[in-house]
Amino acid sequence: MSAAQLRRIISAALLCATALPAWGNEKPLLSASTENSTPGEIRPSPELVRIVLDSVGRGNLEQLDACVAAQRLKHADYASLLRAVRISGGAGHALWFVRPSLNPYCQVLYGAHLFQYFLVDEQPSASRSFYRLVYQNGGDSFDIYGQKSHGLNDIGSTGCVAIECRSSRMSFDGRQYQPVQCSRTRWNDHGQEVTESRRCGADDWKNSQSSGFAPSSDPKADIEKRVIESLNAAAPTASWDHAISIMADITCSGHPSTVVVSQGHDAIWLGIVNAGMRIPGKPIIVNWPISPGNQSAFCSQPVHITTYPHTCQGNDGPLPGCKPAPGCVDISIEDDQCDPMNGYWNNRLGTMSWWRN
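The chain above was modelled as a monomer; its predicted structure follows.
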């Protein structure tokens, strides 16, 4: 990998955090992102929960039920998996921003770096309030602004892939939200961040990368696709498409990561993508040669991967930089000929560390 390629990969990891256009330096009323709770969050009402369930599709209830059971919640307690923030709209309107909660965490409502979100308009009346879904998407960040069009607040949506982020300012046209200003943020070959305006709809890419998000009937397949895309961008010389993978909390973050092992002719590659990462081009990448007799290599392939409890203990005692964490696990990669390669989250270094017998 050339120095220029490495610089672009490292730069992409920082891109989404900075790719938030100010739209004329207007400060948003609400800003939300994948990895952080949104200020003002509360438990959503039954009406808001119903709208979200209808939007994601009743076919996904099985996966949501699995989340409810895994978190030891009451049966059908979907409200605990969501959070809502009210934005006063005036003139009889209130906008509700609904997103998945971070704790408890449900993978079905997240992706490799994105989160699903919903914007619901509430119109109170003398007897009861009426609710309608006015926007839904999945991406890296979302903003609500004070300026209004046809009675509803303007919004901003940002979505990132490995090489760039795209953002769009949207206004309500009386029927739906339409992009009115679009931009693209990327890093050039000199490592400089470049944000440029672009004509909305100027090419086949979505204005906000994931704008117009439609829930898949197979959320797991969507996550796997994004993981492979991010790994291909970070380490294109490895073959990730037919690799083996598992999902587990190996970074001790409380969120599952996807761990992928690629087996080449002369090397074993491992990629780790945290489900809560903003940028899909920011995985942890490790590779080992296949070289019998080398303590820092594997003896043969194929290899297989397993998890085991995160006890912070190796064969020679406590593991350096390891900190116990509920739900966290370690991984072991074995080729059935040499000693296994064992990996754990090094809290001191903020990355994986490896040891073997």
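The radius of gyration is 22 Å.
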